[in-house]
Amino acid sequence: MKLVLENDLRETRQKLKNTAEWAATLEKDSDALKEQVPALEQQLQAAQEQTTTAQGEAEAAMEQLQAVSEHAATAQEQVSALEQQLQAAQEQATSAQGEAEAAQEQLAALQQQVEGGASSQEILQGELDKAREELAAAKEKAVAMEQELGSSRDEVIGLTGQVAAALETLSRVCALAGVKGDADTVAVVGRIEDLMGEVQAAREAQS
């Protein structure tokens, strides 16, 4: 019986020793962790500040993206309107050219038929000159419209570059902040990508 008690006592003392060593180890680990807490708190604060900054940049990029989108859409509407005006001017120039050619043919025919009809020839010549003036004016208008259209197309091309840069900025900032685009963001980006496709198609068609 005494031997059993001595063994139990020995085991108990060993367990107490092991427990004391374990407690000491835990205390050391706890102290080490406590020393790391300030650094971890600073890292957490820095991460929170970075996230806040990134979210602010994302909002600013979205505002810039929307502004560029509206500007690009307006420029595209202007290009479409100028294209219609240019087409009308070209049709007018073609019509005036046809009238001038018809008047020229009529004058040539009458000059062969009329002998000494100077007054009739003068009237026809005046009509021919008028038709030529209208033709020249129509051609000048068509040239001016083409120049204005080219300027507007250049503006749209420049805006396309701005849109691409804004999209890249938005993507980078959202990735940094871990923010996923909401439905409005996706819709805006989709509209801009469609507009960029239309501009590219217009450039290819023009070239």
TrEMBL record:
Keywords: Coiled coil. It comes from the Eukaryota. GO terms for molecular function: transmembrane signaling receptor activity. One of its GO terms (cellular component) is membrane. The keyword Membrane does not apply. GO terms for biological process: chemotaxis; signal transduction. InterPro entries: Chemotax_Me-accpt_rcpt. Residues 23-155 form a coiled coil. This is Uncharacterized protein. It comes from Heterosigma akashiwo.
